[in-house]
Design goal:
The chain has 388 residues and is α+β, with helices and mostly antiparallel strands. Helices cover 33% and strands 26% of the residues. Strands 1, 2, 3, 4, 5, 6, 7, 8, 9, 10, 11, 12 and 13 form a 13-stranded mixed sheet that branches.
């Protein structure tokens, strides 16, 4: 077997195409958009390079010159760990343990040479909401920018010595026909009867001019300390701008107290139900296929992106009230086109959010593992800290 670093456009194309060949008989695999993968490794589109981050990619070939595996390794400039930790991701491999271990060894050697003491994987050279974790349960079609992999990858990671750093759950519930936890309903009623609270979606000018500001204010109070980063108005405006082509205003909901934003949830149509028809390409033909299916074969599943309540109102029923208000406004009506909702990326280190999903009578639909491998095998392994 021969390892080759990705150093040319030919190699870059092969990095994409080998996965297409590998999964050609897998009906549940959906080809990611080429540009979504390529953009991660281009300094022009991934700002982490400009902040000092580094990334390497390798292909693995057999004795006949056929590509049988790939892997990438990263130095993420924003990771602050007790021991310097790198990442590996975009791992694909035939069902051959020696091939898999050679790929792991290659990434490990490069990370050690960069001064790292551990590696997490499979992860993304970017934010956690994309290409993060190894699918171990629930091998149905993936949501947009979520990984899908063969079941035998789990054995490769664990046999090599990776240990579960945390688990990520995807919860699912039907939009209609499933009730809510009785305690949740009571908490919601107590909030909803108070005139100082309002819950609503936004349209037109308010959506365009105010939604990003409201989102930033709540996110920075509710999530920034956990994620280690605050958002700027420019970043949130850019995020909403990117969502615009697929945005459904009915799926974005805010809570207010005395006209000040205190909570939100943001859902989007699950667009992999459309992208599965474009074969990874958003060229002219791909865009036409996208528009046709968006119009005549739209998604019937919505995807929960992010949910937040500012600390002062956590544990006071605001989350329940927001959900119940949304149900009354949209979800319970037969004309509502979305039939299921999936809530991605609920870490097992976030028991509060897991309880919210359980109170919605949602069930775990998929499980991903994020693994960690300590280079010094004598050091004690610690799992991700649980949020208090």
């Amino acid at each position: 077997m021969k390892i080759m670093e990705v150093t040319s456009p030919v190699h870059e194309k092969e990095f994409l195409e080998m996965a297409v060949r590998l999964y050609k008989n897998e009906k549940n695999w959906i080809r990611p958009l080429d540009k979504d993968i390529q953009g991660i490794f281009q300094p022009e589109t991934n700002k982490l390079f400009r902040l000092g981050g580094k990334a390497k990619r390798w292909l693995l070939q057999d004795e006949k010159g056929r590509t049988i595996g790939r892997i990438a390794a990263f130095l993420h400039p924003k990771w602050k760990e007790k021991q310097p930790t790198g990442g590996i991701g975009f791992f694909e491999c035939i069902q051959n343990k020696d091939a898999a271990f050679l790929l792991f060894d290659t990434a490990k050697a490069w990370l050690e040479g960069q001064g790292m003491e551990a590696m997490d994987g499979p992860v993304n050279f970017g934010e956690r909401d994309k290409w993060w974790g190894l699918l171990v349960e629930g091998f149905s079609p993936p949501n947009y920018n979520m990984p899908w992999n063969f079941a035998y990858y789990k054995e490769f990671f664990e046999a090599y010595g990776f240990q579960v750093y945390f688990k990520q759950f995807t919860y699912m519930r039907p939009v209609q026909g499933v009730g809510f936890d009785a305690k949740m309903i009571e908490r919601a009623k107590e909030v909803l009867k108070q005139e100082d609270f309002q819950f609503r979606h936004m349209e037109g000018k308010e959506l365009k001019e105010k939604a990003a500001q409201y989102f930033m204010e709540v996110y920075n109070k509710a999530w920034a300390r956990h994620m280690g980063k605050s958002l700027t108005i420019k970043e949130t405006q850019m995020m909403f701008g990117k969502m615009k082509p697929i945005m459904d205003p009915r799926l974005i909901y805010f809570g207010f107290y005395k006209d000040e934003p205190i909570s939100f949830f943001i859902n989007i149509p699950e667009i992999n139900q459309i992208f599965k028809y474009v074969d990874g390409k958003l060229d002219l033909m791909g865009k036409l296929k996208f528009l046709w299916n968006k119009t005549f074969n739209p998604p019937n599943k919505m995807l929960g992106l992010v949910f937040g309540v500012i600390p002062e109102f956590q544990g006071k029923g605001v989350d329940s009230a927001m959900i119940m208000a949304y149900n009354e406004k949209f979800a319970k009506h037969d004309s509502f086109s979305y039939k299921t909702i999936e809530m991605n990326w609920i870490g097992d280190f976030n028991p509060k959010m897991m309880r919210v999903c359980e109170q919605l009578n949602a069930t775990i639909y998929k499980t991903h593992h994020t693994y960690r491998y300590l280079f010094d095998r004598s050091k004690p392994f610690e799992r991700h800290k649980v949020f208090d």
